[in-house]
Each structure stands twice: as structure tokens, then as C-alpha cells.
């Protein structure tokens, strides 16, 4: 089944808000072999919304719209839906009740604009939004094609898709093709070098298997997709293909699930009973943030220090001011001491550290923007075992921070695997 | 001028990568009064790309495609462009030279797949990509409409749009309408309550002015857009409208430029010569990250502590273990001591702190998921002045972290404004 998604909102087109709903929808429907065929993002303009819906129905049996339903621009999208599917806007008392109950839990009174959200086209079936005030509207065309109008707030879209809309869509539509996926996360290759390495193997793949490259800074995800009528056959086929990839790339394979470097380090910490700390200069808290964004991180993350100023490096991480003066803050000596200092300061057993120049200012001929020293330190019975490496990263400040974050975490993962072993 | 943007790539449709290029393009063209009319995201499928380009040209004179040009899937998009605009794929020696120069700076050798990137349709004019290996291709239709095929790596797209593609598009197309914008950032309102407050004023707006609501967690951006033939007139009109909004919402207006809470706090710190520190439990480094993501942050950010474990709260921030035992880590007492401890530990003069339950686990009946204590502490001649507030936030872990980040920063901004004055 191939869906079309129509994110609606001027805020998307002017670049104030990034649409993350369409990606979330794609990830949530993937396990059923469903795919997003196209994403048509339009503004809060009736003619554009009407045209996008018509185009979407040309190629898809299911269309999901997100957004265009906030209290200040509600009428517009709903009137468009009335014009397309017929009916008129009338108040649905069950929606009014739902909004009142929701607002009272938040200690807010119902005002007139929010009350207007209970107006819905008579041509739709309402699915109550249990986490927001905008009702979800399910429309059916005479030919059986379905449009579901969902709110645009990502948390509401995700919750209601998972809990209500997707189960109802799966019941209404269903597929016979069995789908299977396997993932291998590879580090230490450029995309084109990896493609050359795998080219011969890839060209011999049978037609029921397909290989996709999904590069991220510092990591490449290889995904094997299989489709077949026999679920057991295709499951074993994608597993076999993933095992062959791992045999070819060897130790460059760092994980066989579709997770990012922060999740891999959390996994290694849980497996070996380690406690994680961070000591961040140029990454400014992003390593800690990327780790703690993952539910359950508190079991294995002690905390960390953002040592932006040299004073903080000395005060909290114990890096001697003389060492900083002698080698500079962006140096192997300092970043090693930062990682070891983070272990001491927090009581953790594995630490990663960064010190570099994220730019756009601050570069020198010796240490241009993008120069980042990274270290990882693992507490062993013989004391801390510390490794460091130098990266030269390119791109914007944000990209350099993201790339340094991934590489520092990979350095920690590699140190754990080399010291304590890895069954991945 | 209204552009259509076509992001190309299976990775976008399966939700592995989020398209940020279309928003970046919208923001970059806005100062010239140009807009993105629609975004058509399609996979690496010739028929879909062909259809999207045809649809885009129906409503736009300028079409920008992003992506579909990596070394592993290059031929496909280029062949589609050949089919549409004519010509054949031939090697462009200037592109080969550019790729070789770029790779040699990175210390990488040219391999066969990268070399294939120098094949371009004879029907296009090449714009050299100075920051990546995929060439930019400019196509013109007989009717004067233009398609520019750009790489998909956000840093490359942004750099080359700014430095080469946009200047050339502006020269080729131009507009006579004068455009002006003004922004007021408002805190402490829900979107619908603010809309009610402004409703009478908004309904009296002249036709050349338009008000847009752009809510973010904890902040609402109000943007006044004006269009007119007289640039001076429309500039003064949007300024007048913004001043009227500020008069209506009073102290709820926290900034008059389109910046987020982190940038507002950096601005306040610069204005008053303050040095910023963070002490984060549930936000896990996100406050520090959001501050240090902004270029030049190092001037006013000392650093911070991610005190995920109670041990780190005690060791690095000096929060007595007895206080944590008596009140719990998520308490007003602890979060106040965290903020004050951050000042002492780092030598900063303004600190923000959080301690809460980001979920999905860890909630209790007393302190459910979303309970977050926030504090801000400002060093004054009489010692630290500390304020705290309790938030009950809803949504996913990531949303709770983001909302707590914004609210903690706003608490710091408000403390600075209340104590030291504000001319915003």
C-alpha cells in the first residue's frame, strides 16, 4: 500500500517549521510493508490544498493530511474538505466534550476559538484526538479511497496515528506481500568507497533483494529490503544478505540494528555494566543531549561537563592550566585529560571528550575550522585506558558539531569493543 | 516569484532523513519576497521524478530539485533530466577537475563512482559545486522556465544556493513588489488565547498587512507581513503594526527579532556583560547544546554540568545529598541549588537549571512524567538572586526536553530583564 502525505501550513513553506510528520508516518507504516509514495507540502491556501489532494488521490488509495487545523486557521482546511467530500460544518458535541475534558486537565478554560475546533464536516467520521484539541477526520470516497485529516503537532500526529488511525487503516486495507528488512551500520567508509567495495556482491543480488545506502555523518546505514510471497523465505534471505555484508566489511560493521551512535554506546554500556560521562568543548552538550534523548538513558549515563571556557576545563575536569597554555585547548593532551577528568569528576567508567573549532570563527592556519580532537577513556583495573584521534570535519557549525558527536561516540564504542570484546 | 522545490530520495520517503533543504531555501529567498509555493518530495524513481517536475512547472517558473545525485544513484536523476530537457550524458572535464581538486584537499583519491559524477546532460549549464562532488545543473525550457538540480547534502545545498544559484536566479528573474516583515516573540500565551487577545486589532488590519502565528513550545512568533509597491511605506507600516502588538501584549513580548530563546539569552548576556552556565538534569545537555549551536556563543557561555545522576549533582554542583534525600531530585530546593552551584562551579554570572521527569518511564502519582522544576540564578552585588518555577509539560520525551529547555531559558531571560532592565 502506498500512501500520499500532505503536510499543510504556511509555516512549513516559509521554513519556520520543518515537517517531521511525513518521516514519522513512513517509519510507522514500514513494518506492514506500506510506503509513503510522495509528500506534497502546501500552504494554508484552499486552491493549493484542493489541488494537492486531487493529485494525491491520482496515485494513492490513502491520503493523510497533517496540520492546517490549529485554532487560528481551522475553518479554511475544513471548508476545503467540505467542498471536496460534501456536507456542511456542524458542531460535534462529542468533540466539544473531548476538548473540554482535555483543557480542564491542563487547567485551561474553553475559549471561543478552541470551541470552534468542534465544528466538523458532516461528510466525515470523527476519531477523537485524545492528546489535542483538533479532531481527526476520516473521509471515504465512493471509490473506496480514504483521506484522514490529522493535526500537525508532531506529538499529536504520532500518538493518534499509532493508537487509532493506523490500526483502522490496517483493518480497512491489507496487503499480501511479505516484507523483510535487515540493517548493517558501517563506519570508516565514504559512501562511494563502500559502494565500490560492495559492488560485485550487490550486482549478484537476486531480484527479491535490494540494497539501500543511507549515509549520515560518520556512519553509513546499509539496509537490505526483501519482498516475496513467502514470509519465512524472505526473512532468511535478508538475514543471509546482512551476514554477507558483515563478512565483507569486517570490523567496520558496528551494529546490526538501525540505531545511531548514541544508542550503540548506550547498548555497549548496558552490556558491560558501564556508566557514561561526557566532557565537551566544541560539541557544547550535544553528545550528552544525544545520549539522554534516548528513553532509559538515566540507567547508564552519569552526566557530564560542558567545558566551553578553559576555566571550566581546569575547575571541573582538573585539566592543568599549564597544559592548556602549553598545547592549546584544541590538542591531544587536553582532550585526553578532559576524558580522564570526566571519569574522576562524575564517577563514571567510560567517558568521551571533544575539543575543537566548530566555526565559523576561531580558526587559525594551524587549526582551521573543523579541527576537532576527540578522546575516549575507559576505566580498567589497571587505571584509565585512553585513546584519542584528530578529525578534520567540513560544513556548517551545526554539521561539524554533529559529525564530531558521532565520531567521538564511535571512538568510545570502538574502545569498549577492543577492550571488552563485542558480539555485534 | 514562487518556486517549487522537489526533494528527491528514497531516504526521505522512508523517514530515515528529514528534508531540511526546502525550509532553508524558503528562508534564504524570503528577503527578496520570493516564496516556496509547494514542496513535492519523491523517491528515487524516474516516473515519480518526471511527474513531480511536470506538476511543479505547471505552477512555478523556477523549480529546484535537491538530492538524487549521490555517487550511488546518480545516473537515474540525470537520465530523467536528459529525457525531459533533451541531450545526452557526457563527461564535463571542468567537473572532473573540480572533483579531483576537492578530493585531493580531503586526501581522498578519485574512484570510478565519484568520477561518474562528472557526467552531465549536454542540455544543461553546469555550476561548479565548490563544496561537494555532485555538480549543479541549470536547465532552461523554451518558455523561459528554469530548473536547477542541486545536491541534497544540506551544507552543500545551502552554500551553493547562497553563493551561486540564488544570485544567478535573482539576476534572471526579478520582482517589483516591495515586501516587509516584522516579528514579535511572545511568551506566556496559548495560541488561541493570543488570537483572542489580538482578534479585534487583527480584524482591523489594512489589506496590505497580514498577521501570521508561528507557535513553538513555550513561545509564539507573530510575524507581520506587508506587500506594497512603495518600499518606504510598507516598511513603516509593518513597524507600526509590530509596535501596536507590543503595546497590546505588554511584557509578554520578549523579543522583536525572529530568534529563539537561546539566542535571546545570548543577546541579554552580551548586552549586560554576563557569562552563562547551565545545570541540567532532565534536559540532559540540550540547553547547553541550544546555546552553543549559535556562532559566537563562546564569548558568553562558560559551560555547564549535565548532572544526570544524583552523585554528579552533589560532586560537581555541591547540592547536599541530604537535600536530595529530603526533597527528591525533582524539587524546587534541588533545582535552586543546582543553578547556584553552576554559578560557583563555573565562575559564570547567570545560570539556568532543570530537574524533571522527561519520561516515558520514571513518573510517580506525585510527580508524573512532564513534571519539571526550572531555576535561574543571577549573580548580583548582594549575592545570587534565584527564581524557580514548576512546569507540567506534555508530549514525547523529546518534546518535554525541548519545552523545558525553552521555559528554563525564558526564566533566565525574565530574571535578567526584571533585575537589570530590558530595552527590547
Structure, described:
Two copies of one chain form a homodimer. Chain A is of the alpha/beta class. Chain A folds into three domains: 2-172, Molybdenum Cofactor Biosythetic Enzyme, Chain A, CATH 3.40.980; 178-255, Alpha-Beta Plaits (2-Layer Sandwich); 261-420, CinA-like (Maf protein). Chain A has 15 helices and 17 strands. Chain A has helices at 10-13, 21-29, 46-59, 74-85, 93-105, 112-115, 154-172, 191-203, 231-249, 261-272, 286-292, 310-317, 321-327, 332-346, 397-420; strands spanning 2-8, 35-42, 62-67, 89-91, 119-121, 125-127, 136-140, 146-150, 178-187, 209-216, 219-228, 253-255, 276-280, 301-306, 350-356, 371-380, 383-392. A six-stranded mixed beta sheet of chain A has the order 2-1-3-8-7-6, with helices on both faces. A five-stranded mixed beta sheet of chain A has the order 14-13-15-16-17, sandwiched between helices. In chain A, strand 7 and strand 8 form a beta hairpin. In chain A, helix 2 packs parallel to helix 7 and helix 3 (46-59) packs across helix 4 (74-85). The longest helix of chain A is centred in the C-terminal third of the chain and has 24 residues, at 397-420. The first copy, chain A, is globular. The two termini of chain A are 34 Å apart. Strand 2 of chain A pairs antiparallel with strand 2 (35-42) of chain B, so a sheet runs across the interface.
Amino acid at each position: 500500500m502506498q500512501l500520499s502525505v500532505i503536510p499543510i501550513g504556511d509555516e512549513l513553506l516559509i521554513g519556520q517549521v520543518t515537517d517531521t510528520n511525513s518521516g514519522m508516518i513512513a517509519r510507522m507504516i514500514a513494518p506492514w510493508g506500506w510506503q509513503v509514495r510522495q509528500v506534497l507540502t502546501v500552504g494554508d491556501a484552499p486552491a493549493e490544498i484542493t489541488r494537492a489532494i486531487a493529485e494525491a488521490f491520482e496515485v494513492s488509495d490513502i491520503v493523510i493530511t497533517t496540520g492546517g487545523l490549529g485554532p487560528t486557521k481551522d475553518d479554511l482546511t475544513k471548508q476545503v474538505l467540505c467542498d471536496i467530500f460534501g456536507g456542511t460544518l456542524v458542531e460535534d458535541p462529542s468533540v466539544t466534550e473531548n476538548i473540554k475534558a482535555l483543557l480542564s486537565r491542563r487547567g485551561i478554560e474553553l475559549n471561543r476559538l478552541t470551541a470552534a475546533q468542534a465544528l466538523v464536516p458532516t461528510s466525515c467520521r470523527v476519531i477523537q484526538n485524545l492528546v489535542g484539541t483538533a479532531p481527526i477526520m476520516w473521509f471515504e470516497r465512493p471509490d473506496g479511497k480514504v483521506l484522514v485529516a490529522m493535526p500537525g503537532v508532531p506529538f499529536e500526529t504520532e500518538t493518534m496515528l499509532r493508537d487509532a488511525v493506523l490500526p483502522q487503516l490496517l483493518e480497512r486495507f491489507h496487503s499480501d506481500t511479505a516484507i523483510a528488512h535487515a540493517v548493517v551500520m558501517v563506519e570508516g567508509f565514504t559512501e562511494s568507497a563502500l559502494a565500490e567495495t560492495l559492488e560485485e556482491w550487490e550486482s549478484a543480488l537476486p531480484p527479491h533483494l535490494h540494497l539501500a545506502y543511507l549515509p549520515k555523518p560518520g556512519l553509513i546505514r546499509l539496509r537490505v529490503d526483501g519482498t516475496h510471497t513467502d514470509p519465512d523465505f524472505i526473512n532468511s534471505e535478508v538475514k543471509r544478505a546482512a551476514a554477507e555484508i558483515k563478512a565483507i566489511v569486517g570490523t567496520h560493521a558496528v551494529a546490526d540494528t538501525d540505531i545511531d551512535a548514541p544508542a550503540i554506546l548506550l547498548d555497549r554500556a548496558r552490556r558491560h555494566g558501564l556508566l557514561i560521562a561526557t566532557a565537551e568543548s566544541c560539541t557544547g552538550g550535544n553528545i550528552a543531549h544525544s545520549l539522554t534523548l534516548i528513553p532509559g538513558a538515566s540507567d547508564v549515563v552519569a552526566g557530564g561537563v560542558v567545558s566551553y571556557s578553559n576555566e571550566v576545563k581546569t575547575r571541573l575536569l582538573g585539566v592543568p592550566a599549564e597544559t592548556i597554555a602549553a598545547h592549546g585547548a584544541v590538542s591531544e593532551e587536553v582532550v585526553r585529560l578532559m576524558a580522564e577528568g570526566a571519569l574522576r569528576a562524575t564517577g563514571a567508567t567510560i567517558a568521551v571528550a571533544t575539543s575543537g573549532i566548530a566555526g565559523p570563527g576561531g580558526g587559525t592556519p594551524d587549526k582551521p575550522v573543523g579541527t576537532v580532537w576527540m578522546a575516549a577513556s575507559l576505566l580498567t583495573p589497571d587505571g584509565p585506558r585512553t585513546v584519542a584521534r584528530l578529525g578534520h570535519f567540513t560544513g556548517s557549525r551545526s554539521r561539524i558539531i554533529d559529525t564530531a558527536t558521532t565520531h567521538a561516540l564511535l571512538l568510545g564504542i570502538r574502545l569498549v569493543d577492543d577492550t571488552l570484546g563485542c558480539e555485534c
